[in-house]
């Protein structure tokens, strides 16, 4: 497993679920992974698993992506240490709560939009030059079927993912002449904290586990990937 050998990858929301599974898979494929999340303990557990499997440590960056100045500092720190960034996996996302839009809490609305939309814009703003410095930069943004069609009580989350898709597709058009490839990935129905929030009575062992979809991330992250500005389904 060496499809990402020598590559440096930043993965957000990497302390559990899809982000943690992707981090472990990328490390197994030879990448050095930079992991961000708010939960320090979760990041350390992922790092322990990576070290046990590969003998190499990840770079851990405890970070709340709603602290936008810290995103700028992250880009500068990556430049100082690595000089470039080969892969971005923007996986962190929030559901917060489901409910009718007419009664939705404005604070929760802002939290969803701040993380699912604005933090992605700030990541692009901070990391674009680093990704373009790579000989084959790759950026993967995690989207959802909720962006495609309205679901009752899912308005903030669906709207945020629709906005993300517009941002990423536009970004892809703007950098079409560069070696950087930018795509969206829809993981489908996968066991995760967000899924449990939305469907609390569901048995998570009966649905797809995060590890089963990591191959789709590797496909979009490797140098051989030619997809650009697309929405790819993991299942």
TrEMBL record:
Domain Ketoreductase residue range list: 7-193
This entry carries the following GO cellular component terms, namely: membrane
Against SUPFAM superfamilies, the record matches this protein to:
NAD(P)-binding Rossmann-fold domains
Q: Which InterPro entries match?
A: KR_dom, NAD(P)-bd_dom_sf, Sc_DH/Rdtase_CS, SDR_fam
The residues forming a coiled coil are none
Keywords, ordered alphabetically: Oxidoreductase
- Asked if Cell membrane is a keyword of the record, the answer is no
What GO molecular function annotations does the UniProt record carry, in alphabetical order? oxidoreductase activity
Q: PROSITE patterns, alphabetically?
A: ADH_SHORT (PS00061)
In which family does this protein belong, per the annotation? Belongs to the short-chain dehydrogenases/reductases (SDR) family.
Q: What is this protein called?
A: SDR family NAD(P)-dependent oxidoreductase
Q: Which organism is it from?
A: Azospirillum griseum
């Amino acid at each position: 497993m060496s499809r990402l050998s020598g590559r440096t990858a930043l993965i957000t929301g990497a302390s559990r679920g899809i982000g943690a599974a992707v981090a472990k898979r990328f490390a197994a494929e030879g990448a050095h992974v930079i992991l961000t999340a708010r939960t320090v303990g979760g990041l350390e557990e992922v790092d322990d698993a990576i070290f046990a499997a590969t003998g190499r440590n990840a770079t851990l960056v405890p970070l709340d992506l709603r602290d936008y100045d810290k995103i700028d500092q992250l880009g500068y720190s990556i430049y100082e240490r690595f000089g470039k960034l080969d892969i971005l996996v923007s996986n962190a996302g929030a559901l917060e709560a489901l409910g009718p839009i007419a009664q939705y809490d404005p604070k929760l609305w802002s939290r969803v939009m701040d993380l699912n939309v604005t933090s992605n814009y700030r990541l692009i703003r901070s990391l674009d030059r680093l990704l373009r410095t790579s000989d084959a930069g790759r950026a993967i943004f995690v989207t959802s079927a909720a962006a495609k069609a309205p679901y009752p009580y899912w308005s903030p989350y669906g709207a945020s993912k629709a906005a993300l898709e517009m941002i990423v597709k536009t970004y892809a058009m703007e950098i079409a002449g560069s070696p950087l490839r930018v795509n969206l990935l829809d993981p489908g129905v996968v066991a995760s904290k967000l899924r449990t929030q939305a469907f609390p009575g569901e048995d998570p062992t009966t649905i797809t586990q995060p590890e089963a979809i990591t191959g789709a991330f590797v496909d979009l992250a490797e140098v051989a990937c030619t997809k650009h500005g697309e929405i790819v389904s993991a299942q």
